[in-house]
Amino acid sequence: MLRIGTVPYLVARPLTWGLERDPQVSLSVATPEVLAAGLNSGEIDVALASSILALEPDAFPFWHQGPVIAARGPIRSVLLLLRPGVESPREIKRLGLDPHSRTGRALAEIVLRDHYGVECVSEEISDWSQAFDQGLDAVQLIGDPALRARAVRPDWKILDLGETWAELTRLPFVFAGWIGRRGFDPMEAAHILDPAAVQGLSQRDALVAEGSAQLGHNSAFLQRYLFQDLSYRLPAATVHAALAEFQARLRLPVS
After folding, report:
1. What is the pLDDT of residue 131?
2. Strands 121-124 and 94-97, how do they pair?
3. Is residue 23 packed enough to be buried (19+ CB in 10 Å), middle (13-18) or exposed (0-12)?
4. Rounded to an integer, what distance in angstroms lies between the CA atom of residue 65 and that of residue 240?
5. What global pTM score does this model have?
6. Following DSSP, what letter does each residue of 60-82 receive, concatenated?
7. Are the C-beta atoms of 1 and 24 separated by less than 8 Å?
8. Domain 2-72+172-250 classified CATH 3.40.190.10?
9. Can you list the residues of the chain whose pLDDT is less than 50?
10. Residue-by-residue DSSP string for 235-248
11. How far is 174 from 247, CA to CA, in rounded Å?
């Protein structure tokens, strides 16, 4: 049985349709940092996981030809939210970081440093719904919490990190893809993962209706999110180029 992991966010659903019912699959649904731990321990064979895992020393194998979660501009669910009174990212002194995704955190720090010239004090937040009352200048969030936050905190200014990355680099950003544990090529799961993506992408209208009921956004917003803002397929060469740019800006130590 193939042990597959995925995140509990609407953004992933078009790539994982029906996997929970597949008798060949044991599916785990968890936040990105839990999936990373499962890959590291070998408890998960392949996961729809943060792209940074494929870029660090002792990297995990990444399926460049496979489905990805990417954006060529705005993504709408990987955000910096600036508190009222903070007019520009250049004014950020204290930044609250989502503890669940190292990719989102790293992207926020790259955008602030390379696009705005800001190096600020950052701290992890434990509960996104409370983070807006802790005196932070900005809060970084990913996934469904980011979608909910932009609905319930309309007074906080939004900086879309996918859009800002595109302005900075002229490249898409690859947030996640299918990543194998060490010693497991994720292409070995293509016979399961490719059909799930084909089926799930054909079901996005149903996912729009489901998300609209849960996330505080109307169907037009989520229709654009799932059909236009997100890129679920990119040429392998584009994926390589986008990840190489991300890796270079991470300033990782040489292994």
Report:
1. 87
2. parallel
3. exposed
4. 10
5. 0.94
6. PPB-TTS-EEEESS--SSEEEEE
7. yes
8. yes
9. 254-255
10. -HHHHHHHHHHHHH
11. 11
